[in-house]
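[Structure tokenization] protein backbone as discrete codes

[Encoding] learned vocabulary of local backbone shapes

[Begin record] amino acids and matching fold tokens:

___
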Amino acid sequence: MRAGWGFDAHAFGGMPPTLLAGVTVDLERGVIATSDGDVVAHAVADALLGAAALGDLGDHFPSGDEKWREADSMEMLARIVRAVGEAGLSIHSLDLTVVAERVRVAPHREAIRKALARVLDLPVDRVSVKATTTDGLGFLGRDEGLAAVAVAVVDEV
């Protein structure tokens, strides 16, 4: 088995809505990003890429390439899932933490878990979604943005 760690953060300020795993969690605010700015999809993709030793998200989807402007991050994640499979690996499980001061994950947790399980082709009970705040510390604590951290476990087929 192999494990990979992924992280992503975006500042608020873009066009609404804010998405987590393709699920709308804030209708009034958006994030500044090249793609749709889904920090969950980005962190999970980087965790998978790390576990498979396939580089990072920027290698596969360069932010300077206009082709990825406003791209659907869950579709980007699906492409990474396919690349992991082509590398002879299967996804075993995922653990995810969203870090945000005001965005509430709890009301959307099951929808996020189901969306991730669907793209990762996993049973929902192998997808963990948690949330925390920084208790007012830093840019996340000042509610200037949000972040996600993911750990993915993969196994050789």
User: Anything to note?
Assistant: Strands lie at 2-14, 18-20, 23-26, 30-31, 89-99, 127-132, 145-156. The chain has one domain: 2-156. The two ends are 10 Å apart (CA to CA). The mean pLDDT is 96.
